[in-house]
Specification:
363 residues, alpha/beta, Aspartate Aminotransferase, domain 2, eight-stranded mixed sheet
Length: 363
């Protein structure tokens, strides 16, 4: 039987039906309805944040943030999902790539500082917490203060992640979450923004409802609201989120125990927890990756070279200096199966296949 790379959490149908019946009884299907308000409140409480705004997807969340913060020129990472960059370009923002750290795979603060020194016109930094591993948020806070720039975190992978006792979502001017069906927590499609400042939250709430406030059109807005049926899914999944996160963290730990001595893993932030969003491994060469990938395929195990390619090869119009690390890592990394429906036995089978692939290299 195939071991799937990902498998969305299936909402409990009985519990989901209860929430959907509430929607039907209220007749309030969208436009910040009762379930929207309940999900917002419960997520703020669970995640330890304020100023959380539910959005129809994570990509629109990024675009709304750029609009609210007034970002016109930005630096970002080439080692991320395509939406991190495409959202900037879609908004017509002058964009520049900076290379990543070779150990964490996150955007390099020193490279960002070099770019800001060379181009003081840059007013935004967009960094991804890659695989849920927090960026060097403390250094980026210093960079933001010294250079008077906005910092936005693509936290699509970072649901439930903390740095020390603080939610990683509380760093920067804004952080976005993705609630796509493949994520740790989902609403089928959806996302959220967590703003540092209340006034930014209020502005964004207007913008995602066509910029209508008290019946008046106040700006150029968009429709990016999360509807009540999606909120019903979110509430159903949230009812079980502790079990989901605990199981995924256990699988992550099992992978680490079995593979950390034979492959390279990203260096995790020393003060951060894990949420089991992904399990990436980096091989010593492209040839080694090909052997492991072949063994996984023979064993009917799905995998994904994630993130590949380095996005500078996709968007040649984006400026950059030197991206050797991103290009190198993107050619040697792949993600192994990790999801709520995976078992510990599955993880052991996947780990054995990786080890067999590496043994082929030395034979």
């Amino acid at each position: 039987m195939t071991i799937a790379l990902n498998s969305p959490v299936v909402p409990d149908i009985a519990r989901l039906t209860q929430y959907l019946e509430q929607v039907n009884e209220s007749g309030h299907y969208t436009n910040f309805g009762p379930l929207h308000q309940e999900l917002t409140r419960r997520l703020e409480e669970y995640l330890g944040v304020e100023n959380l705004l539910l959005i129809s997807n994570g990509t629109l969340a990024l675009q709304v943030v750029y609009k609210v913060l007034g970002i016109t020129r930005a630096v970002t990472t080439p080692f991320s999902f395509v939406a991190t960059t495409s959202s900037l370009l879609w908004q017509g923002i002058d964009t520049q790539f900076c290379d990543i750290d070779k150990y964490t795979y996150n955007l390099s603060p020193s490279k960002v500082q070099d770019a800001l020194t060379s181009d003081p016109g840059i007013d935004g930094v967009v960094a991804t917490h890659v695989y849920g591993n927090p960026c060097d948020v403390e250094t980026f806070e210093d960079i933001a203060r010294k250079n008077d720039v906005k910092v936005v975190y693509d936290a699509a992978h970072a649901f439930g992640i903390k740095v020390g006792e603080q939610s990683v979502l509380n760093f920067g001017d804004a952080s976005i979450l993705s609630f796509h069906a493949t994520k740790v927590f989902h609403t089928v499609e959806g996302g959220a923004i967590v703003f540092k400042r209340k006034e930014d939250y209020e502005k964004a709430k207007q913008l995602i409802n066509f910029a209508i406030y008290n019946g008046e059109i106040t700006d150029v807005g968009i429709n990016a609201k999360l509807n009540e049926y999606q909120c019903a899914v979110g509430l159903t999944v949230l009812d079980n989120i502790d079990q989901i996160l605990a199981h995924r963290a256990e699988l992550f730990a099992t992978y680490t125990e079995n593979l950390s001595h034979i492959v390279t893993l990203p260096k995790w932030h020393s003060l951060a927890n894990t949420n089991g969003a992904y399990f990436p491994i980096c091989l010593e060469s492209e040839d080694a990756l090909a052997l492991v990938a072949s063994e996984l395929a023979k064993s009917d195990i799905q995998y994904r070279p994630y993130f590949k390619p380095s996005l500078d090869s996709v968007f040649p119009q984006v400026k950059y200096d030197n991206l050797d690390i991103s290009r190198d890592i993107s050619n040697r990394v792949l993600c192994l199966p990790l999801h709520f429906n995976l078992t510990k036995a599955d993880v052991l089978k996947v780990s054995a296949a990786v080890e067999r692939g590496l043994l082929c290299r030395v034979q």
